[in-house]
Amino acid sequence: MELFSEIAVSLSRVFVACIIVVGAFRLFFKNTVIYHFVAVMCFPIALSVLIGALVARGVVPALAGIPLAMAAIVVGFVIIGKVIQTPLKEMLNKLNSLSKGDLNFTFDKRFLKGKHELAEMSRKILQLGEAQKKTVEFAMWATAI
Q1: By the 8 A CB rule, do 111 and 90 touch?
Q2: Pairing with 11, which of 30, 72, 107, 143 sits 20 to 30 Å away (CA)?
Q3: Would you kindly state where each structural domain of the chain is located, as residue ranges?
Q4: Cα distance between residue 101 and residue 132, in whole Å
Q5: Which pLDDT belongs to residue 62?
Q6: Around Cβ 3, how many Cβ atoms within 10 Å?
Q7: 3-state secondary structure of 59
Q8: Does the reported pTM lie above 0.85?
Q9: Does the pLDDT value for residue 98 go beyond 80?
Q10: Distance (Å) of CA 53 to CA 2, 3, 12, 28, 58
């Protein structure tokens, strides 16, 4: 029972630290990609620290603790990869279309939501496409006169 209470105390300390770190980053880096990165990665890192503490106390064998900790961190990086890489690829595809003269593109609404940098860039690319459409329409109108 004492071991269980030690684990519970360690777990609560780690997650309280995570909440404090994420809260501090939210205060200073609200609506940024950095905040999202820290928010997602804080918990796998905290879980790795907890696993390390369990290994140190002999609760979890060292050979099992290392893969568990690595798996937690890899899952965090996969999530971050999807959160950041997917909108960046979408923006790159839209910019590629724009550079080839294709002005008839739209963004998935989930990329336009939010106040972080990626959503802002997506909105600006969309605005750029709309401005280019107006320029082309004006040029066609001007040459028709």
Answers
A1: yes
A2: 30
A3: 2-144
A4: 9
A5: 67
A6: 11
A7: coil
A8: no
A9: yes
A10: 15, 12, 13, 30, 9
